[in-house]
Amino acid sequence: MAEDLILFVGDALAKYGFPAGHPLGVDRQAAFWSAAQQQNLHRRVTVTDPRTATRSELERFHTAQHVDWVESRSHAGEGYLDSGDTPAFPGVFDAGAAVAGTALEGLERIMAGQAAKTFQPIGGLHHARRGQSAGFCVFNDLGVVIDTLRSQFGVEQIAYVDIDVHHGDGIYYSYETDPGLCIVDIHESGHFLYPGTGHADERGRGAAVGTKLNLPLDPGAGDRDFFAAWERGLAHLRAQAPKFILLQCGADSLAGDPLADLRLTPAAHGRVARDLARLANESADGRMMVFGGGGYDLGNLAAGWTRVLEEVLEAG
Ligand SMILES: [Zn+2]
Questions:
Q1: Cross-strand bridge partners of residue 159
Q2: What's the mean pLDDT in 254-261?
Q3: pTM above threshold 0.85
Q4: What is the DSSP string of 114-162?
Q5: Cα–ligand 1 centroid distance for 174 (angstroms)
Q6: Could you tell me the distance, in angstroms and rounded to a whole number, from the CA of residue 194 to the centre of ligand 1?
Q7: In angstroms, what is the span from residue 198 Cα to ligand 1's centroid?
Q8: How far is the CA of 295 from the centre of ligand 1 (A)?
């Protein structure tokens, strides 16, 4: 069964982290990987190296101006890519392109039948917009995958599930009028947390009204509140019968994250992973990609992400 799930780890992904004291550092992949090895999960997957996206691959989602901007800031090696959350550093272009390229490598391997599912712990950069970086996200690997599914593989009916504590605004607003992208996004309410969006009345626009479900939770919410929201989310997903599933399982929604205020346990992440893997097996030929997303307590991200990986493996 080892060939059924590809796990992406490697130096190029580890470098996706910001300098000195930034909450998203370069130590996150190692924290996950060491926990995965302790739990023997590495023996149950095919470990695969990252690759770098080309400029034209990035431009499937991003504007050429944005790609140019990141490249110029990467050469300058200082300042910010946005208004103050996402620092530039020497090589930031390559680090961002490695996250997006690795996501594409996973997608291509799934579509070639080499695996049904992938797990990419360093990825799921859901705040980046087509024309700008935001919220620690340089390039939006998820958007690059979605646009590649449409343009290169003709897959229209896609489900995007986001349980990161922050609303996935870079995906929501890029596809707000797109009826083929079904979204379920459970997050801490935008009244209390960055990016301030993802309210319950944001259900898509135009032809896409009703295809998106934003389920904000109040600060302090725990597993009981989460599971009530997830029941609604899962029913919404089942009704859409997606042909491909993407999960962004940010560990910053777990209790004790330094940047946010939800109190979930890894059981929440595990339940979503298991239910989605089963739905993928029923409706999408098993095809599912999982991205680690946020998470700024290393113990939490190790616990949350290994739980997700184990549940996806158990679902087969
Ligand atoms: Zn987050």
A1: 182, 245
A2: 98
A3: yes
A4: S-SEEEESS---TT-BTTB-BTTBSS-HHHHHHHHHHHHH----EEEEE
A5: 18
A6: 9
A7: 13
A8: 6
